[in-house]
Amino acid sequence: MGEQPAQPGVLYVVATPIGNLRDVSLRALDVLRSADRIAAEDTRVTQGLLAAYGITRPLTALNEHNEVAVTPRLIARLLAGESLALVSDAGTPGLSDPGAHLVRAARAAGAPVVPIPGPSAAVTALSVAGITAPHWLFYGFLPPKAAARRQTLQALAALPFHLVFYEAPHRILDCVADLADVLGPGRELILARELTKRFEQVACLRLGEAQDWLTADTDRQRGEFVLIVAGAQPTARSESTNARQVLATLLEELPASQAARLAAKLTGIKRAELYALALDLKPEAGDQP
Ligand code: SAM
User: Fold this and answer.
1) pLDDT tens digits, residue range 101-152?
2) Where are the domains positioned within the chain?
């Protein structure tokens, strides 16, 4: 099959490698070589990829800080017939990365938007996770601050799907501590770091073991992480019916957090699960931020 160069007036959303530069697709190279312009999250990072393949094209920085401001200029170029490739630093643009604003604006302006698929850290980690469950939920980054992170995890705790998180190295220890605390130490964790890179590592642990695993060798705290956490086990029917009744009664008098705490003592079911159930039963009983 021959080369497929960029066409006039088209926005291409181009996935790029998440580490190993040879993971770029032939089609991505066709488009990057021929596009009139490349919009890049960090032009220096993209220069590295382009240099590796001997490509020189005009670059425009498009990042989370300037995306709204530069989009109208890029749309004007598209409408004037230029082809445009959008890339982020690594992986698929728009996925925990900038790009969605430009994509929407291009679509609204009537310009074709064409995906050039390729690597994404979440899917790469899932491919080697060996999970047999058919469903998973991509969450991306949890909030950086502990209180908000724990509150978010409480809202996710009762979901029966594997949860996929991105995490930065400077927060990895705090993050796994909160995961174990809020979701319980027994859930399985697939910790995938530095995927496709020299120090790639995929470990299968229990949440309660993760902190020790990370501190056993400080090198394990370096690099980029995808965390895949098993979903909640479905609660036995009779247990959950009983919990519902207990919670519903407590919620008549108490806010969700207190009702969940007491119901956990009475039923033996995890407080986080009961808190999520309490919010299902009575959303207005949630704690005020
Ligand atoms: N758009 C990208 C994608 O499609 O995967 C994600 C960009 S997001 C800003 C960066 C995060 O992705 C990192 O903090 C890390 O959680 C994850 N990530 C990126 N590259 C990775 C790698 N090689 N190994 C493990 N995780 C990675």
Assistant:
1) 999 999 999 999 999 999 999 999 999 999 999 999 999 999 999 999 999 9
2) 11-119, 122-229, 236-284
Is the C-beta atom of 92 inside 6 A of ligand 1?
Answer: yes
Tokens standing for residue 35: 């596009």
Q: Which pTM value belongs to this model?
A: 0.83
Q: What angle in degrees, to the nearest 10, is found between the helix axes of 271-281 and 256-267? A: 130
Compute the distance from residue 161 Cα to the ligand 1 centre, in Å.
21
- CATH classification code of 11-119: 3.40.1010.10
Residue 97 Cβ inside 6 Å of ligand 1? The answer reads yes
User: Which residue of 96, 171, 220 sits with most ligand 1 atoms within 8 Å of its CB, as the best mutation to test the pocket?
Assistant: 96
Ligand 1: centre distance to CA 239 (Å): 39
Q: Cβ contacts of residue 141 below 8 Å, gap of 6+?
A: 96, 165, 166, 167, 168
Inter-residue contact 187 to 171 (CB < 8 Å): no
Indicate whether 241 pLDDT > 90. Answer: no
Topology of domain 122-229 in CATH is 3.30.950
Find the 87 Cα to ligand 1 centroid distance in Å. 14
